[in-house]
Amino acid sequence: MKAYHDQHFLTDPHAVDRIANLAEVKGKRVLEIGPGNGALTHALLDHGAIVHAVELDGHLCEELTDRFSDEISIGQLTVQHGDATRCELPEFEMVVSNLPYSVSSKITFRLLDIGFEEAVLMYQSEFAERMVAPAGTKNCGRLSIMVQTYAAIQQCFKLSPNCFSPKPQVHSTVVKIFPRKQPIFPINNRHLYADVVRALFSHRRKTVRNCLKESGGMLDPSWVKRVIATLPDEILKSRPQELYLEDFATISNVA
Ligand code: SAH
Fold this sequence. Notes:
- This protein is an alpha/beta fold.
- The chain folds into 2 domains: 176 residues, 3-Layer(aba) Sandwich (Rossmann fold); 63 residues, Helicase, Ruva Protein, domain 3 (Orthogonal Bundle).
- The protein has 12 helices and 9 strands.
- The strands form 2 sheets. It has a 7-stranded mixed beta sheet with strand order 4-3-2-5-6-9-7. It has a two-stranded antiparallel ribbon with strand order 1-8.
- Helix 2 links the parallel strand 2 and strand 3.
- It is elongated and about 65 Å long.
- The model has no long low-confidence stretch (mean pLDDT 95).
- Bound molecules: S-adenosyl-L-homocysteine.
- The site of S-adenosyl-L-homocysteine (SAH) has 23 residues, from strand 1, helix 2 and strand 3.
Protein backbone atom coordinates (compact mmCIF):
# COMPACT_ATOMS: atom_id res chain seq x y z
CA MET A 1 0.00 0.00 0.00
CA LYS A 2 1.19 3.50 -0.76
CA ALA A 3 1.83 5.55 2.38
CA TYR A 4 -0.57 8.44 3.06
CA HIS A 5 1.10 11.64 1.82
CA ASP A 6 4.38 9.67 1.45
CA GLN A 7 4.71 9.49 5.21
CA HIS A 8 7.83 7.54 6.13
CA PHE A 9 9.18 8.98 9.33
CA LEU A 10 12.86 8.91 10.18
CA THR A 11 13.22 6.87 13.34
CA ASP A 12 16.96 6.16 13.40
CA PRO A 13 18.50 8.84 15.66
CA HIS A 14 21.95 8.31 14.14
CA ALA A 15 20.54 9.02 10.66
CA VAL A 16 18.83 12.19 11.91
CA ASP A 17 22.13 13.42 13.39
CA ARG A 18 24.08 12.68 10.23
CA ILE A 19 21.65 14.76 8.17
CA ALA A 20 21.52 17.66 10.62
CA ASN A 21 25.35 17.72 10.79
CA LEU A 22 25.77 18.05 7.02
CA ALA A 23 25.23 21.79 6.94
CA GLU A 24 26.12 24.71 9.21
CA VAL A 25 22.55 25.80 10.03
CA LYS A 26 23.23 27.90 13.14
CA GLY A 27 21.42 31.25 12.87
CA LYS A 28 20.25 30.45 9.32
CA ARG A 29 16.67 30.59 8.10
CA VAL A 30 16.02 26.99 7.16
CA LEU A 31 13.03 25.72 5.20
CA GLU A 32 11.92 22.22 6.08
CA ILE A 33 9.43 20.58 3.75
CA GLY A 34 7.38 17.74 5.24
CA PRO A 35 8.54 17.84 8.87
CA GLY A 36 6.25 14.90 9.71
CA ASN A 37 6.44 14.23 13.42
CA GLY A 38 9.46 16.46 13.79
CA ALA A 39 12.54 14.23 14.13
CA LEU A 40 14.64 16.37 11.81
CA THR A 41 12.94 19.58 12.99
CA HIS A 42 14.09 18.82 16.51
CA ALA A 43 17.68 18.29 15.41
CA LEU A 44 17.67 21.50 13.34
CA LEU A 45 16.34 23.54 16.26
CA ASP A 46 18.95 21.93 18.48
CA HIS A 47 21.65 23.11 16.08
CA GLY A 48 20.38 26.69 16.35
CA ALA A 49 18.51 26.97 13.04
CA ILE A 50 15.51 29.27 12.60
CA VAL A 51 13.10 26.83 11.04
CA HIS A 52 10.10 27.35 8.81
CA ALA A 53 8.32 24.00 8.41
CA VAL A 54 5.68 23.39 5.74
CA GLU A 55 3.52 20.32 6.31
CA LEU A 56 0.56 19.10 4.23
CA ASP A 57 -1.05 17.04 6.97
CA GLY A 58 -3.10 19.17 9.37
CA HIS A 59 -2.95 16.60 12.18
CA LEU A 60 0.83 16.60 12.08
CA CYS A 61 0.82 20.41 12.12
CA GLU A 62 -1.17 20.32 15.36
CA GLU A 63 1.19 17.77 16.88
CA LEU A 64 4.22 19.83 15.89
CA THR A 65 2.65 22.98 17.31
CA ASP A 66 2.14 21.19 20.65
CA ARG A 67 5.52 19.53 20.75
CA PHE A 68 7.50 22.66 19.88
CA SER A 69 5.36 25.31 21.61
CA ASP A 70 8.44 26.81 23.34
CA GLU A 71 10.41 27.22 20.11
CA ILE A 72 7.33 28.66 18.40
CA SER A 73 6.78 31.20 21.19
CA ILE A 74 10.35 32.52 20.93
CA GLY A 75 10.10 32.72 17.13
CA GLN A 76 12.63 29.97 16.39
CA LEU A 77 10.04 27.83 14.60
CA THR A 78 7.00 28.50 12.45
CA VAL A 79 4.75 25.71 11.26
CA GLN A 80 2.80 26.31 8.07
CA HIS A 81 -0.05 24.04 7.01
CA GLY A 82 0.31 23.88 3.23
CA ASP A 83 1.39 22.14 0.06
CA ALA A 84 5.05 22.92 -0.54
CA THR A 85 4.68 22.47 -4.30
CA ARG A 86 2.50 25.58 -4.50
CA CYS A 87 2.03 27.49 -1.23
CA GLU A 88 3.58 30.86 -0.55
CA LEU A 89 6.93 30.59 1.17
CA PRO A 90 8.80 33.07 3.34
CA GLU A 91 12.45 33.96 2.63
CA PHE A 92 14.98 31.30 3.56
CA GLU A 93 18.71 30.68 3.12
CA MET A 94 18.86 26.92 3.39
CA VAL A 95 16.61 23.92 2.86
CA VAL A 96 16.95 20.74 4.90
CA SER A 97 14.28 18.12 4.31
CA ASN A 98 13.39 14.49 4.08
CA LEU A 99 11.20 15.12 1.05
CA PRO A 100 7.88 13.50 0.19
CA TYR A 101 9.16 11.34 -2.68
CA SER A 102 6.17 11.62 -5.02
CA VAL A 103 6.70 15.38 -5.37
CA SER A 104 10.53 15.36 -5.36
CA SER A 105 10.79 16.62 -8.89
CA LYS A 106 8.23 19.44 -8.54
CA ILE A 107 9.78 20.62 -5.30
CA THR A 108 13.35 20.48 -6.61
CA PHE A 109 12.46 22.58 -9.66
CA ARG A 110 10.53 25.01 -7.49
CA LEU A 111 13.41 25.44 -5.04
CA LEU A 112 15.95 26.00 -7.82
CA ASP A 113 13.65 28.61 -9.29
CA ILE A 114 13.30 30.45 -5.97
CA GLY A 115 17.01 30.20 -5.13
CA PHE A 116 18.84 29.43 -1.87
CA GLU A 117 22.42 29.09 -0.54
CA GLU A 118 22.57 25.40 0.13
CA ALA A 119 20.21 22.44 0.49
CA VAL A 120 20.46 19.08 2.21
CA LEU A 121 17.71 16.92 0.79
CA MET A 122 16.79 13.28 1.03
CA TYR A 123 15.49 11.57 -2.10
CA GLN A 124 14.65 8.11 -3.26
CA SER A 125 18.07 6.73 -4.34
CA GLU A 126 17.08 6.17 -7.99
CA PHE A 127 15.98 9.80 -8.20
CA ALA A 128 19.26 11.03 -6.69
CA GLU A 129 21.19 8.90 -9.18
CA ARG A 130 19.28 10.42 -12.07
CA MET A 131 19.98 13.88 -10.71
CA VAL A 132 23.74 13.36 -10.73
CA ALA A 133 23.95 11.27 -13.94
CA PRO A 134 26.46 13.03 -16.22
CA ALA A 135 25.35 14.12 -19.69
CA GLY A 136 26.17 11.39 -22.17
CA THR A 137 25.33 8.50 -19.83
CA LYS A 138 22.35 6.15 -19.84
CA ASN A 139 20.67 7.51 -16.70
CA CYS A 140 20.82 11.11 -17.87
CA GLY A 141 17.50 12.84 -18.58
CA ARG A 142 15.64 16.13 -18.28
CA LEU A 143 16.07 16.18 -14.50
CA SER A 144 19.88 15.66 -14.71
CA ILE A 145 20.35 18.36 -17.32
CA MET A 146 18.15 20.94 -15.62
CA VAL A 147 19.58 20.40 -12.14
CA GLN A 148 23.22 20.30 -13.28
CA THR A 149 22.76 23.46 -15.36
CA TYR A 150 21.75 25.47 -12.32
CA ALA A 151 23.46 23.69 -9.42
CA ALA A 152 26.36 21.55 -8.24
CA ILE A 153 25.21 18.35 -6.57
CA GLN A 154 26.95 16.06 -4.15
CA GLN A 155 25.66 12.63 -3.06
CA CYS A 156 26.43 12.31 0.67
CA PHE A 157 25.20 8.94 1.92
CA LYS A 158 22.51 6.30 1.54
CA LEU A 159 19.98 5.22 4.15
CA SER A 160 18.30 1.83 4.23
CA PRO A 161 14.53 1.40 4.63
CA ASN A 162 15.23 0.30 8.23
CA CYS A 163 15.87 3.92 9.26
CA PHE A 164 12.18 4.75 8.70
CA SER A 165 8.77 3.83 9.98
CA PRO A 166 6.76 2.65 8.15
CA LYS A 167 9.59 1.23 6.02
CA PRO A 168 9.61 2.52 2.44
CA GLN A 169 10.20 0.04 -0.38
CA VAL A 170 13.19 1.99 -1.63
CA HIS A 171 16.58 3.14 -0.40
CA SER A 172 17.11 6.83 0.24
CA THR A 173 20.04 9.08 -0.60
CA VAL A 174 20.96 12.35 1.07
CA VAL A 175 22.15 14.95 -1.40
CA LYS A 176 23.65 18.42 -1.05
CA ILE A 177 22.71 21.03 -3.63
CA PHE A 178 24.64 24.25 -4.20
CA PRO A 179 22.97 26.55 -6.72
CA ARG A 180 25.43 28.23 -9.10
CA LYS A 181 25.53 32.03 -9.31
CA GLN A 182 25.19 31.70 -13.08
CA PRO A 183 24.13 28.69 -15.15
CA ILE A 184 27.09 26.41 -15.97
CA PHE A 185 27.06 27.68 -19.59
CA PRO A 186 25.58 31.02 -20.68
CA ILE A 187 21.89 30.71 -21.50
CA ASN A 188 20.12 33.53 -23.33
CA ASN A 189 16.57 32.53 -22.49
CA ARG A 190 15.85 30.23 -19.55
CA HIS A 191 12.29 29.48 -20.65
CA LEU A 192 13.40 28.42 -24.09
CA TYR A 193 16.22 26.36 -22.56
CA ALA A 194 13.72 24.48 -20.38
CA ASP A 195 11.45 23.87 -23.39
CA VAL A 196 14.35 22.60 -25.52
CA VAL A 197 15.48 20.17 -22.82
CA ARG A 198 11.90 18.97 -22.38
CA ALA A 199 11.36 18.56 -26.14
CA LEU A 200 14.61 16.64 -26.60
CA PHE A 201 13.95 14.21 -23.79
CA SER A 202 10.38 13.48 -24.83
CA HIS A 203 11.81 11.24 -27.58
CA ARG A 204 15.09 9.97 -26.27
CA ARG A 205 15.61 7.41 -29.06
CA LYS A 206 15.28 9.91 -31.90
CA THR A 207 17.99 12.20 -33.21
CA VAL A 208 18.15 15.80 -32.09
CA ARG A 209 17.01 16.86 -35.58
CA ASN A 210 13.86 14.74 -35.36
CA CYS A 211 13.13 15.63 -31.74
CA LEU A 212 13.17 19.31 -32.68
CA LYS A 213 11.07 18.78 -35.83
CA GLU A 214 8.50 16.77 -33.90
CA SER A 215 8.38 18.96 -30.83
CA GLY A 216 4.67 19.48 -31.54
CA GLY A 217 3.70 22.87 -30.12
CA MET A 218 6.51 23.06 -27.56
CA LEU A 219 8.86 25.00 -29.87
CA ASP A 220 8.20 27.63 -32.53
CA PRO A 221 8.48 25.89 -35.97
CA SER A 222 10.26 28.83 -37.63
CA TRP A 223 12.84 28.86 -34.82
CA VAL A 224 13.29 25.09 -35.22
CA LYS A 225 14.03 25.65 -38.93
CA ARG A 226 16.73 28.17 -38.05
CA VAL A 227 18.24 25.81 -35.49
CA ILE A 228 18.42 22.99 -38.02
CA ALA A 229 20.00 25.31 -40.58
CA THR A 230 22.56 26.65 -38.09
CA LEU A 231 23.74 23.74 -35.93
CA PRO A 232 26.57 21.38 -36.87
CA ASP A 233 25.49 17.98 -38.13
CA GLU A 234 27.38 16.39 -35.24
CA ILE A 235 24.78 17.73 -32.81
CA LEU A 236 21.77 17.22 -35.08
CA LYS A 237 22.45 13.55 -35.70
CA SER A 238 23.13 12.72 -32.03
CA ARG A 239 20.56 11.36 -29.65
CA PRO A 240 19.69 13.62 -26.69
CA GLN A 241 21.42 11.24 -24.28
CA GLU A 242 24.68 11.54 -26.22
CA LEU A 243 24.91 15.34 -25.98
CA TYR A 244 27.30 17.23 -23.72
CA LEU A 245 25.76 19.58 -21.16
CA GLU A 246 27.08 22.53 -23.18
CA ASP A 247 25.21 21.37 -26.31
CA PHE A 248 21.82 22.09 -24.72
CA ALA A 249 22.88 25.71 -24.23
CA THR A 250 24.27 25.89 -27.78
CA ILE A 251 20.95 24.68 -29.19
CA SER A 252 18.76 26.99 -27.14
CA ASN A 253 21.01 30.01 -27.79
CA VAL A 254 20.40 29.93 -31.56
CA ALA A 255 18.83 33.33 -32.30
N1 SAH B 1 10.67 14.79 7.76
C1 SAH B 1 9.95 13.73 8.44
C2 SAH B 1 8.82 13.12 7.59
C3 SAH B 1 9.14 12.72 6.19
S1 SAH B 1 7.80 11.96 5.40
C4 SAH B 1 10.92 12.68 8.90
O1 SAH B 1 12.03 12.65 8.37
O2 SAH B 1 10.59 11.89 9.76
C5 SAH B 1 7.26 13.20 4.31
C6 SAH B 1 6.42 14.27 4.98
O3 SAH B 1 6.01 15.19 3.95
C7 SAH B 1 5.11 13.78 5.61
O4 SAH B 1 4.98 14.34 6.88
C8 SAH B 1 4.00 14.28 4.67
O5 SAH B 1 2.78 14.55 5.35
C9 SAH B 1 4.62 15.53 4.12
N2 SAH B 1 4.15 15.96 2.79
C10 SAH B 1 3.73 15.18 1.76
N3 SAH B 1 3.44 15.93 0.69
C11 SAH B 1 3.68 17.23 1.04
C12 SAH B 1 3.57 18.48 0.35
N4 SAH B 1 3.15 18.54 -0.90
N5 SAH B 1 3.90 19.62 1.04
C13 SAH B 1 4.35 19.57 2.33
N6 SAH B 1 4.47 18.40 3.01
C14 SAH B 1 4.14 17.26 2.38
